[in-house]
Amino acid sequence: MNHLPNTPPLEDGVWLPFTAMRGFLEAPMIFERAEGMHYITPDGRRVLDMMAGLWCVNAGHAHPRITAAIREAAGRLDFVSSFRMSHPGAFAFARRLLDAVPGMARAFFSNSGSEAVDTALKIARGYHRARGDAARTKFIGRAKSYHGVGFGGLSVGGIARHKRDFGPLLADVFHMPLPHDPAQRFLRDRPAAGDHWLAGLDDILAVQDPSTVAAIIVEPVTGSGGVYPPPIGYLEALRARCDKHGILLIFDEVITGFGRLGACTAAEALGVWPDIMTLAKGLTNGAVPMGATLVNSRVFDAYMQGPAGAPELMHGYTYSAHPLACAAGMAALDAYQLEGMFEASAAIAKPFAAALLGLQGAPHVIDVRHCGLLAAVELEPRPAAPGVRGAAVADACFADGVLVRAAGDTMVLSPPLVVTAAQVAQTVDAMARALRAIA
Fold it and tell me: Which family does the similarity line name (predicted)?
């Protein structure tokens, strides 16, 4: 994707993720500062951030509570290992986090969503082995899902272009269909209930034998794959299938966690609880890298049956429960809870959706999907040139002072929870102008 340059040419050195490096170096997009809802370029131009960084800066940039907490923590305890030792902040943050996410009993800290997912998959297999059911090794993911870039997350993920260059991946991984009907477009609410949505899962279970399946992993709302809300009753039926067959249910809430759906988690907002949940991104408001894998008491207790002197889970990271990350996480929770950000997200979700649905009929727009403060505007690709139109629209919006993300020809939006109605209108106006200008 080519962006308009806003800085002098850069020297080579950094290799950026998910980036066409040669194109970036010809037209780099560089931000020097950020505050509130805006990024600021080196030449002082303010750009409205309608991506919350990368689905993560839910409280807005440079939030004073979080900034102050990181500064204080850095001067008090810069690092301590989590291998056979810890620090008070880890336990305080875990308790606050578990209080905010009912149904979960323990928090295992890592450094990213990718690590949180790989941790969840390992815990799932280990859980069954601890119970004497080591034959349960298979995983079921879902089409269009994104679960990070570790080999485990890539394996259960459902986006082909992410896997293409790195196989073979984990064996015994299967994928159920995305619960989406392309004929249903511009929906005002979630898709209607229907038994057919899980027919693909039933087929997999019939062939593979449910007694060999360790876990099913889904995003409650498909995020990076294009924002697909779950049909009404879908997650409830998925939970019931897992209960019936003794399969663990994993919710990847790296994107949906911390206010995207107007509650701390999508599980709370949608009323369906998993056995394992992964979190990252909004966990620290993106200020310090951190991931968390939460498990319910049933999963944790299964691990606690072995010899008392041996580690129950042979897994971990050097920076698990890093002191600065824990401080940032505590401050982020303070910001979300004390400043009413989840409630603000819930209040603006319907106006946000209504404004974007107003793009129906604009040039090239073939669908608008939304759930809470997540939305996707899908464009008709140019013939034989997929992704080009989406990139051009993103470039035009950036030139107009609004940052949106093009995932191929789908424009994805996930603004900070503090977004205002005026900023939503500014975004829709910029997109409408771009759509009219781009062939």
Answer: Belongs to the class-III pyridoxal-phosphate-dependent aminotransferase family.
